[in-house]
TrEMBL record:
The keyword Repressor belongs to this UniProt entry's keyword annotation: no
Signal peptide extent: 1-29
Protein name: Formylglycine-generating sulfatase enzyme family protein
Keywords: Signal
Pfam families named among the record's database cross-references: FGE-sulfatase
Regions that span the bilayer: none
Residues covered by the Sulfatase-modifying factor enzyme-like domain: 68-342
InterPro entries in the cross-refs: CTDL_fold (IPR016187), Sulfatase_Mod_Factor_Kinase (IPR051043), SUMF_dom (IPR005532), SUMF_sf (IPR042095)
Superkingdom in the source lineage: Bacteria
Length: 346
């Protein structure tokens, strides 16, 4: 078979629907990471399949509350990076890093939220200007033998509005993460709300949620062995066993939140940060999406993306971890990358 799978060791590496109101209070939830500013805040009830399926994709009090859909983290010190993953994840020195307090979206920005932004501003995304984007599809063995990285295609007309190409639309996808957005698109949305993209350190602080144990570098599964995030189970890219219940992107919030009450910090969609990628430069572990872009296309600065996606598997990528990081050209729209926003304390 004309493909090399990167075989990497894996040892290191309240259901119920409240569909009527879809609100819950963090006051009852409690966590060391989320502080008094979250008391009595109403947020979407998420964390199970019935709840994420019922979610509209718009947070409670959307556009009437400056922090709609966000939780506040008081900040603190943590270890940035991991010694159990890839070379580019190694901590610098002891890794101890401090971040200040900030508000952060509980979920990835959804198609419904991005559509609200576009309706209000008339914004045209980079994929629409460029005429397409890099879109994943599950190849056949024959396709894999025919060309490298056969799971990526440049699809003319693909954009956040048409995630699989011109014939597709967002019907039934309002609560999925918006994808096929560049870093500039993500920043434009964030600034519309008076927010920003997280730094790599801010994102990882939120993703680790106060933990620093070995569990951070293992595939996310519960005590019964069931996946607790949307990532690839099976032999990538030919066989997806679908143990997590989703093939491709899932709606936001289908799995339990981390201890900072944040959903999908691991898996589903990679997330843009505001930081330029530095450190050891490894090849793209999801396959270099730039390789399928139109010939002669100019690529700009690689930025850090965090969290892994539905494409990360135990035999390929293995980046379904809070410490994971990847590089992505800032101007390259792809179907496995979204974002969330933050609002720093003044």
């Amino acid at each position: 078979m004309a493909i090399k799978l990167w075989l990497i060791g894996t040892a290191t590496l309240a259901a119920g629907v409240l569909a009527a109101a879809l609100t819950t209070s963090l006051a009852a939830a409690g966590s060391e990471g989320v502080d008094h500013l979250n008391r009595s805040r109403s947020l979407a009830a998420l964390g199970s399949e019935p709840q994420c399926e019922a979610y509209s994709g718009l947070p409670v009090h959307w556009r009437s509350d400056a922090q709609a859909g966000m939780v506040h983290l008081h900040g603190g010190e943590f270890v940035l990076g991991s010694n159990a993953g890839y070379e580019d994840e190694r901590p610098a020195g002891d890794g101890k890093t401090k971040v200040g307090g900030f508000w952060i979206d509980q979920t990835d920005v959804t198609n419904a939220q991005f559509a609200s932004f576009v309706k209000a501003t008339g914004y045209i995304s980079d994929a629409e200007r460029q005429g397409g984007g890099a879109v994943f599809h599950q190849p056949t063995l024959e396709e894999l033998n025919a060309r490298p990285l056969a799971w990526w295609r440049w699809v003319a007309g693909a954009s956040w509005r048409h995630p699989q190409g011109p014939a597709s639309d967002l019907s039934g996808l309002a609560s999925q993460p918006v994808t096929l957005v560049t870093q500039a698109d993500a920043l434009a949305y964030a600034r519309w709300l008076g927010r920003d993209l997280p730094s790599e350190a801010e994102w990882e602080y939120a993703g680790k949620a106060g933990h620093d144990g070995a569990e951070l570098d293992t595939a996310p599964r519960d005590a019964r062995g069931k996946p607790t995030a949307n990532y690839w189970q099976g032999v990538f890219p030919l066989v997806n066993n679908n143990e997590d219940g989703h093939v491709g992107l899932s709606p936001v919030g289908c799995y339990a939140a981390n201890d900072f009450k944040l959903y999908d910090m691991v898996g589903n969609a990679w997330e843009w940060t505001k930081d330029v990628y530095s450190g050891p430069h490894q090849s793209h572990s999801n396959g270099d999406t730039a390789s399928v872009a139109p010939a002669g296309r100019r690529h700009i600065t690689p930025m850090v993306i965090k969290g892994g996606s539905f494409l990360c598997a135990r035999d390929y990528c293995v980046r379904y971890r809070a410490s994971s990081r990847e590089q992505q050209e800032a101007d390259l729209p792809a179907s496995h990358i979204g974002f969330r926003t933050i609002l720093r304390d003044s």
